[in-house]
Write a structure and sequence with these properties.
The structure is a homodimer of 223-residue chains. With 223 residues, chain A is an all-alpha fold. Chain A has 9 helices and no strands. In chain A, helix 7 crosses helix 8. The first copy, chain A, binds a DNA duplex (30 and 30 nucleotides) through helix 1 and helix 3. Chains A, B: This is TetR family transcriptional regulator. Chains A, B: One of its GO terms (molecular function) is DNA-binding transcription factor activity.
DNA sequence: CCAGAATGCGAGCGACCTCTCGCTTTTGTC
DNA sequence: GACAAAAGCGAGAGGTCGCTCGCATTCTGG
């Protein structure tokens, strides 16, 4: 199969110059900024082009439509996340204290979301259409599976239904804590992160309390 | 001041016939349905009129603009909520067990939101413009103040900053639990309500543990 | 019963948004 | 330097949506 014109739907639609790659990065950055402040639907392609300092026509030189911008942005973020924190929830040494497991997982994901606030904006808005919602669902399912795996190793004797419910609950609590965390800066942000950890640990502690080799540790506030 | 034409901006803009009141209720019901399925911004006034079985012109006979529909809907819901559950968070007998206080407050608000899913759609979407966001903020502030008052009576010796943070956290957790609850039906819904109560109680328990006349009660799962 | 107000209609106006198209300018290659 | 491909432009086509306006119909008070 020769690399003719009709092969353009796969991988490399056409040859890009270095300038083009730079423009793409620039446009994605601009899109991230606009999506963050206005959300996906309210963000106009003209506004994204203006933010990037190019004409609307130039934007459509590199993206077939508005949705593709969000898709590409989401894909790149997903890759970055997998590269940086792919193992965040994977290793589940049953001997790890609950505080430590929860704390490190929360820290990793909070850090990523603080560095890339678009991620939350894209994955949280109820206004995203088709394809992006699919990405959202895929991510949610992946995360849910990870959490479920982690919890099932911590809570071996729990029914699948309870496990699924508890996992969803943990994800929901994390999302709520993330929203509060992103809404604050500096020391206050740190405090919210700590509160989120407290919530999760205290929620899960009674469920794993029967595990061998664990002592009771209850610190009412952060020491 | 006579009740002339220029007095129409207050209270009763003009005289309504019974048919008009019926149409208004009908339009609001249709709007609630459309808002629920598509969100506020994506909901078109033509779609609302179609859902109500009237022409677009008729809709604008009763509402000056799209925003006013949401405002009126929000106002009516707020009134219903105040009438039905206004006292839900108010009475704070310090002798009340934490489980009971949290449980009844959660039950009341969950019940209201289950009966009126529009409420969540209107108050949750990040796409709502100006005035509705104000209503949202007002409600949030009110609820926050109530929670803060309730917690301050349970936790007398806590700094105002910690109190505010804990209150916000509780509200955020409630919102997360509400979303999960609304996403399920029947027995599963009940289970999520119970999990939400567990989360809140376990989160707050260590903070009120020093209160006199309380015994430790830790039930790993719902009995 | 009738005058005037309230209700009801639906084509269509203006604003905005996504995306296109013909064109010029820049870049890489021989 | 010549030439093709890529990058860049911006007016505007085509479409949707909020909302209006002129006119027809139904109600209500005197």
């Amino acid at each position: 199969m020769p690399d003719t014109a009709e092969n353009q739907a796969k991988e490399q639609p056409r040859r890009r110059q270095a300038r083009g790659e730079r423009r793409i990065a620039q446009l994605l950055e601009a899109a991230a900024s606009v999506f963050c402040t206005t959300g996906y639907t309210a963000a106009s392609t003209n506004a994204i082009a203006r933010e990037a300092g190019v004409s609307p026509g130039t934007l459509y030189q590199f993206f077939p439509n508005k949705e593709a911008i969000a898709i590409e942005l989401g894909d790149r973020l997903m890759h970055q996340m997998r590269d940086a924190y792919g193992e965040a929830l994977a290793p589940v040494d049953p001997a790890t204290p609950l505080e430590e497991a929860v704390g490190s997982a929360v820290d990793r994901f909070i850090a990523f979301n603080c560095e890339h606030p678009v991620f939350f904006a894209l994955m949280h808005g109820p206004d995203v259409p088709g394809r992006i919602a699919e990405e959202h669902d895929a991510l949610h399912t992946t995360l849910l599976a990870r959490v479920e795996a982690l919890l099932s190793s911590l809570l071996p004797d729990t029914s699948p239904a309870d496990l699924a419910r508890t996992s969803r609950m943990c994800l929901g609590l994390y999302k709520a804590g993330l929203e509060l965390t992103l809404g604050h800066e500096g020391a206050e942000r740190e405090a919210y992160v700590q509160e989120l950890k407290n919530v999760l640990v205290r929620y899960l502690e009674p469920l794993v309390g029967e595990r061998p080799g664990r002592e009771e540790a209850s610190s009412p506030r952060t020491p």
